[in-house]
Design a protein that fits this description.
By secondary structure, the protein is α/β, with parallel strands linked by helices. The radius of gyration is 18 Å and the shape is globular. 27% of the residues lie in helices and 30% in strands.
Length: 273
């Protein structure tokens, strides 16, 4: 992270597009550590992982592990601290009083502190996520040192209101972890660009790549993770249907420039809609 003469912040971000094995927790962690290590070696200050990147979506095994003492939040923090790089991604988390684990998006600092924590608001009932996951209750805009950063997870992407609220709270960067499957890959690519454009901020998403089986059914995740600038332009994009690691250099001065040139957020009519 560095600033120019006007104090604008520049930083390098890595997108880690990984495949995830159901309830192979140790293997997933080592896989993530490999990608995060490569990101750090490449000069990235933040690496973004997909949804449920340490566990996969076997809800029963995930809950069993949590009840037995597994702490995926701690693992994310330890991963960040061990490599000296900020880490973002979603994991299962079970707090006291919860009947079901949350799908928790974390932004951990290079020192292992939690800069931001967000529980997925919109649960994908088509896949019965609402039966197995504790819903979140609020949006999150983290006060990270590089930028105010909104956090979101997968299906949230279809609900523009929450992203506009993040922008109104000052978000200059929004990070989304996803497990977005075929045949709807064009949706995530289009919606990510739309969210960046309407919120006039950087939007980065990391999507799983690979196949996850659910009994006789299989889910094919399509990758295509990307970083999008405030004008809706894709700065980098990962491969389709394969693991990948991409780097992107971001100039947060573009956020102020976009919002100054087209003050759409200030021209909203909340008195009408």
């Amino acid at each position: 992270m560095r600033g120019d003469k006007e104090g604008k912040v520049h930083m390098r971000i890595a997108i880690a597009q990984t495949a995830v094995e159901q309830h192979r927790f140790a293997e997933n962690l080592e896989h993530a550590r490999e990608f995060a290590g490569r990101a750090a070696e490449g000069g990235a200050e933040l690496v973004v992982f997909p949804e449920m990147f340490l566990s996969g979506f076997h809800y029963g095994e995930n809950k069993k592990a949590l009840l037995a003492g597994a702490d995926f939040v701690w693992e994310v923090r330890s991963l960040a601290r061990g490599l000296g790089i900020a880490v973002a991604g979603s994991v299962p988390a079970l707090d006291p009083g919860m009947d079901r684990p949350a799908n928790r998006m974390l932004l951990a600092s290079p020192a292992g502190e939690v800069w931001g924590s967000y529980d997925k608001l919109h649960l994908f009932g088509v896949f019965n996520e609402n039966r197995h996951v504790h819903p979140g209750r609020s949006i999150e805009v983290a006060d990270a040192p590089f930028a105010k950063t909104g956090l979101a997870v997968c299906y949230d992407l279809r609900f523009p209101e929450m992203f506009v609220k993040m922008a109104l709270r000052g978000a200059e960067l929004i990070i989304l972890s996803a497990a977005w499957p075929h045949p709807r890959m064009e949706h995530i690519r289009l919606l990510a660009r739309a969210r960046a454009l309407e919120c006039q901020c950087f939007f980065i998403f990391s999507n799983q790549a690979g196949v996850e089986t659910f009994g006789p059914n299989a889910m094919h995740y399509g990758g295509c993770s990307a970083a999008v600038d405030p004008w809706g332009k894709a700065l980098c994009e990962c491969a389709a249907d394969a693991e990948d690691l991409k780097f992107c250099d971001i100039d947060f001065g573009l956020v102020e420039k976009a919002r100054r040139q087209i003050p759409a957020l200030g021209d909203r009519r909340p008195d009408v809609y």
